[in-house]
Amino acid sequence: MYRITKVLSVGPFATVERADMLREAGVTHILNVSGGPSHLTAEAHGFQQVSWIPLEDFSRMPPHVATEILDTLHRMASEPGSHVYVHCVAGHLRSPTVLWLYLIALGVKPDVAQKWIEERSRNAVPGHHRMVDHQHVLLAQMHGLANFFPHARPDIIEPFETV
Questions:
Q1: Which of 51, 61, 105, 127 could tie 144 with a disulfide, CB 3.0–4.6 Å?
Q2: Closest CA to 148 of 140, 158, 137
C-alpha cells in the first residue's frame, strides 16, 4: 500500500491476506478498479465500504465511467475520518490513473498529482496515455468544479509525509 495523501492510498489487489494490513493502516473504504470483483467485503472484513467499478487495462476509460469513479471516490473520501484505498491488480496503471484524475478534480495540477503518486509508488504510471487523454483531464477538472467544492475535508489533498 502506498499512501499518497492523508486520506488516499493506492496499491495492489486487496486480498483477504492483505485485509489486516489495510485495517491496521487505517483504511476504512476500498475502491476496486480491477477487472475482477473484490475478495473483501465490508461486512466480513471490517471496512465501512467496498466498491467495485471494473476497468480494463490499456483501454480508453469511457467518460461515463470516469465520472462514476470520481463520484464514488469523492463520496468515500468525503466521509469524516475515512481513508480510501484504491486498487487494481498490481497497483501500477488503473488505480494510480483513477487517483490522479480525482486529485485533478480536486484542483491539483496534473503534473503535481503525477509527481505525488510516482514519488510514493515508484512503479505507478498515473495518467497512462492508453487509458486517458487531455479530454479526461478537462472532464475531471470540470466535474470537480461543478460537484466537489467547497470541500469539507481539505486533508484529501494534503500529501502524506513519509518519515
A1: 105
A2: 140
Residue with cell 489487489: 13
Contact between 83 and 24 under an 8 Å Cβ cutoff? The reply is: no
Domain extent for 149: 2-157
Fill in the DSSP letter of residue 6.
Answer: S
Q: What does each of the 163 residues of the chain score in pLDDT, given as a tens digit? A: 999 999 999 999 999 999 999 999 999 999 999 999 999 999 999 999 999 999 998 889 999 999 999 999 999 999 999 999 999 999 999 999 999 999 999 999 999 999 999 999 999 999 999 999 999 999 999 999 999 998 888 888 888 876 5
In the chain, the amino acid numbered 48 is Q
**Amino acid identity at 68:** E
